[in-house]
UniProtKB/TrEMBL annotation:
<dbReference type="InterPro" id="IPR002035">
    <property type="entry name" value="VWF_A"/>
</dbReference>
<keyword id="KW-0176">Collagen</keyword>
<feature type="domain" description="VWFA">
    <location>
        <begin position="1"/>
        <end position="133"/>
    </location>
</feature>
<protein>
    <submittedName>
        <fullName>Collagen alpha-1(XX) chain</fullName>
    </submittedName>
</protein>
<dbReference type="InterPro" id="IPR050525">
    <property type="entry name" value="ECM_Assembly_Org"/>
</dbReference>
<dbReference type="Pfam" id="PF00092">
    <property type="entry name" value="VWA"/>
</dbReference>
<dbReference type="InterPro" id="IPR036465">
    <property type="entry name" value="vWFA_dom_sf"/>
</dbReference>
<dbReference type="InterPro" id="IPR036116">
    <property type="entry name" value="FN3_sf"/>
</dbReference>
<dbReference type="GO" id="GO:0005581">
    <property type="term" value="C:collagen trimer"/>
</dbReference>
<dbReference type="InterPro" id="IPR013783">
    <property type="entry name" value="Ig-like_fold"/>
</dbReference>
<dbReference type="InterPro" id="IPR003961">
    <property type="entry name" value="FN3_dom"/>
</dbReference>
<keyword id="KW-0964">Secreted</keyword>
<feature type="domain" description="Fibronectin type-III">
    <location>
        <begin position="161"/>
        <end position="250"/>
    </location>
</feature>
<dbReference type="Pfam" id="PF00041">
    <property type="entry name" value="fn3"/>
</dbReference>
<keyword id="KW-0272">Extracellular matrix</keyword>
Length: 291
């Protein structure tokens, strides 16, 4: 599978898209380069949520490997997103080109770093890594496969997926989430939320025995996208998604004007709930405006 990223990650093809080497190489030849920013953390989150799902071809019994190719320093927190993947047993190889930050590559990559971190001065030099990287990847898969003996069911569906996401008690700065757990209890839940019109995703990790959460410190009058993902030892189940808007802040009401003089007026109004201060703006009305 392959995804490109800048400020918005884009899946080029899923794990289940092609079944032969020639098909993958043909897809690579037709790939159109995506320029732009370097939001590596958002890209790793995209890979976890979109590309490593059973629906995208990720088999529960298969080892999960992510190869990150980047030519710059991330503009968001790549380390936090990478740690989430690594905590799920997903192995990350980090390859830097040109202006990549080697310190960041080492933070993102899995141990041992001498096998998982590579850095070259320019794109043509990537060809020199292919042979070694192929051998390392195949060896790591064999090593990990031999260690894993747990019998993990291949069937997903409701067994690994929570249902019935409900969003309630919505205020101008908070909301409450509840959901029904899957038949097979997860190890943890990962809740991701962010404004639908753009914003840095935030996440909360919960114990798998918990099935509710209150989100706070939200922005008023804003539509939020919310996702709930069940996390197991070797896979992330299908997530629940919901959307809702926080309420606008309450407004003052019933503005009244009294005690007019040649250079003063008195204003009074009904208070806005929760307001700690008021800003009063006053300007002369334009000519011919209502007195």
């Amino acid at each position: 599978g392959l995804s490109q990223y800048s400020s918005d990650p884009r899946t080029e093809w899923d794990l289940s898209a092609y079944s032969t080497r020639d098909q993958v190489l043909e897809a690579m030849r037709n790939l159109r380069y995506k320029g732009g920013n370097t939001f590596t953390g958002l890209a790793l989150t995209h890979v976890l949520e979109q590309n490593l799902k059973p629906d995208a071809g990720a088999r529960l019994e298969a080892e999960k490997l992510v190869i990150l190719l980047t030519d710059g320093k991330s503009q968001d927190d790549a380390n936090l997103a990478a740690q989430t993947l690594k905590n799920l047993g997903i192995e990350i190889f980090a390859i830097g080109v040109k202006n990549a930050d080697e310190v960041e590559l080492k933070q993102v990559a899995s141990e041992p770093l001498e096998l998982t971190v590579y850095n070259v001065l320019d794109f043509p030099l990537l060809s020199s890594l292919v042979g070694k990287l192929t051998r390392v990847l195949c060896t790591r898969i064999k090593e990990k496969s031999n260690k894993e003996s747990a019998d993990i069911p291949v069937n997903t569906g409701p067994q690994l997926s929570p249902t019935d996401l409900k969003i309630s008690a919505v205020t101008s700065k908070s909301m409450h989430l509840t959901w029904s757990p899957p038949l097979r209890p997860p190890k943890k839940y990962r809740i991701v939320y962010y404004p639908s019109k753009g914003g840095i995703p935030k996440e909360v990790i919960l114990d798998g025995a918990v099935s509710s959460l209150r989100l706070s410190n939200l922005t008023s009058h804003t539509e939020y996208l919310v996702s709930v993902f069940p996390i197991y030892d070797t896979v992330v189940g299908d997530g629940l998604r919901g959307v809702t808007s926080t309420l606008p802040l309450s407004s003052p009401r019933s503005l009244r004007v009294s005690e007019l003089s040649h250079n003063s007026i008195r204003l009074s109004w009904k208070a806005a709930q929760g307001a700690t201060q008021y800003l009063v703006l006053c300007s002369a009305a334009p000519d011919r405006a209502e007195d």
